[in-house]
Amino acid sequence: MSPELFSQIASAMVVAWGSFAAIRASRSTTRCALLSNLLVAFAMMLLVRLIADFGGWSSWFIYVWVLCGGGYVIAVYLAAAALPNLPWRAETAKTRRSEMTNLSVSSVLTFAVSGALVIPGLLLG
């Protein structure tokens, strides 16, 4: 398997995961969780855009990118519809700790995925 193909497959999986995470963010119970989940999802999309080789309109990756971009548009619409009805913070201390743990884990996973995409990009360049 060539490094370019591996990089495109990894980037496609990350952008699809980011699109799914953005859509899932509208189910958050607080505004902080919703906004932070959207921020992590958009960071994944921008990171893939920065690193991935799109290969022009004849490549399959550009179509995956456009499809996942549609998922991000749907996610923003769902988040805008859900945002006014959500409280800013969780009510109980246990829920706040759980929310902070989830945000920490998602941040660590985002950095790990970033590293997994940057290292092959550095080797290719």
Oligomeric organization of the protein chains: single chain
Report the radius of gyration as a whole number of Å.
16 Å
Tally of separate helices: 4
Percentage of residues assigned to helices: over 70%
Unreliable stretches: none
Overall outline: elongated
Please give the number of β-strands.
0
Order of helices and strands: HHHH
Overall residue-averaged pLDDT value: 83
Structural class: mainly alpha
Largest sheet: none
Distance between the termini: 17 Å
In what range is the share of β-strand residues?
under 5%
Throw out a few tags for this protein.
mainly alpha, elongated, 4 helices, 125 residues, single chain
Provide a descriptive summary of the structure in words.
The chain has 125 residues and is mainly alpha-helical. Helix content is 78%, strand content 0%. The protein has four helices and no strands. The chain has helices spanning 3-24, 31-51, 61-82, 93-124. Helix 2 packs parallel to helix 4. 22% of the residues are buried.
Write the layout of secondary structure elements.
Elements: H1 3-24, H2 31-51, H3 61-82, H4 93-124
